[in-house]
Recover the amino acids of this structure.
């Protein structure tokens, strides 16, 4: 059974699946009816797209357009292969500078994983954390030292305060702050690719492959359940999936 949105409306696969889910919810949970046999209903398949990847020179060019916290977050996206929210939800205790590793808690699929932490970012991150929780904070908040590990690595500059309970806290940086900063940096760097924060993660995997890192290790660093998901990066290597030289280059 073909979905009319596909045959008539010619909409995307995600829109088709969203419409189907909405109809099933309506009949099952609102109208309380029996939707009958759904054997012939096939959910639309998402088309496979190759990821957008920066060259090493493009990564450098974009990073040069960023400053401060936005620069450090982007460096970690590329240097650790993190998704944006994985980076923003990092707590101090999740970054092990001595072991040079980052523990991602409740990543995609609610899975934990460990990935690499770049040695070149050790000093910048330490300096950043000194600004985030200066020594004076320990005097103002007696429990700050014991709770240090639970602090966000990238907190907002302002604390929130509940008017009713008088409790205070601090959220991590809003993702839109980094997204807008990276978008501006890409434009200023003169890069025409439809890139975003997630392009740093794609570039992390692709550049590791280019340097000969094995696919299974990259799979673990990215947190992919199936190596087939990681294999897509073999198709975007600069030298081609099999190192093939075009015949026109031999003319």
């Amino acid at each position: 059974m073909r979905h009319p949105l596909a045959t008539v409306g010619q909409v995307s696969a995600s829109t088709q699946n969203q419409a189907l889910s909405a109809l099933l919810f309506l009949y099952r949970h609102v109208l309380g009816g029996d939707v009958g046999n759904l054997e012939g209903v096939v959910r639309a398949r998402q088309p496979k797209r190759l990821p957008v990847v920066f060259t090493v020179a493009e990564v450098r060019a974009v990073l040069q357009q960023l400053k401060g916290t936005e620069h450090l977050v982007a460096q970690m996206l590329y240097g650790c292969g993190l998704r944006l929210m994985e980076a923003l939800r990092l707590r101090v205790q999740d970054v092990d500078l001595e072991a040079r590793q980052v523990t991602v808690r409740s990543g995609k699929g609610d899975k934990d994983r460990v990935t690499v932490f770049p040695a070149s970012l050790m000093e910048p991150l330490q300096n950043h954390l000194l600004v985030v929780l200066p020594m004076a904070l320990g005097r103002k908040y007696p429990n700050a030292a014991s709770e240090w590990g639970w602090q966000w690595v990238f907190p907002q500059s302002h604390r929130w305060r509940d008017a009713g309970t008088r409790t205070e806290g601090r959220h991590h940086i809003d993702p839109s702050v980094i997204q807008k900063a990276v978008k501006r940096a890409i434009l200023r760097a003169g890069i025409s690719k439809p890139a975003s924060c997630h392009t740093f993660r794609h570039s992390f995997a692709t550049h590791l492959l280019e340097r000969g890192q094995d696919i299974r290790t990259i799979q673990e660093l990215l947190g992919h359940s199936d190596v087939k998901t990681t294999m897509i990066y073999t198709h975007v290597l600069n030298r081609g999936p099999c190192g093939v030289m075009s015949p026109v280059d031999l003319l």
